[in-house]
Amino acid sequence: MSPSERQIEEREARKQRILKGALEVFKSNGLEGATMDQIAQQSGFGKATLYYYFTSKDEVFIAIMEDGWKKLSDG
Questions:
Q1: Packing angle of the helix pair 36-43, 57-74 (nearest 10 deg)
Q2: Distances in Å between the alpha carbon of 45 and those of 28, 49, 59, 62?
Q3: What Å distances lie between residue 57 and 4, 24, 38, 51, CA to CA?
Q4: Exposed, middle or buried by CB within 10 Å (0-12, 13-18, 19+), for 65?
Q5: Integer Cα distance of 68 and 37 in angstroms
Q6: Hey, how many other C-beta atoms are within 10 angstroms of the C-beta on 8?
Q7: With 35 labelled, which of 7, 21, 26, 41 sits at a CA distance of 20 to 30 A?
Q8: What 3-state class would DSSP assign to 58?
Q9: Residue 68 has what pLDDT?
């Protein structure tokens, strides 16, 4: 069974919330100083949810960068 449009939107909203929280953590602590625990806490999710979407903080950082470039090119 494929996910419904609502489920897809909810997943994307959670992912964006994680990216927003992660950006704050990276701004405060830098890439090296940031932890997945901090990112999970800042975004309001447990670590299990965070790891469902991203396997590492580097992957989170890359997603933030890709999202930023996408916004610039769509802009």
A1: 50
A2: 19, 6, 17, 20
A3: 28, 13, 10, 10
A4: exposed
A5: 23
A6: 11
A7: 7
A8: helix
A9: 84
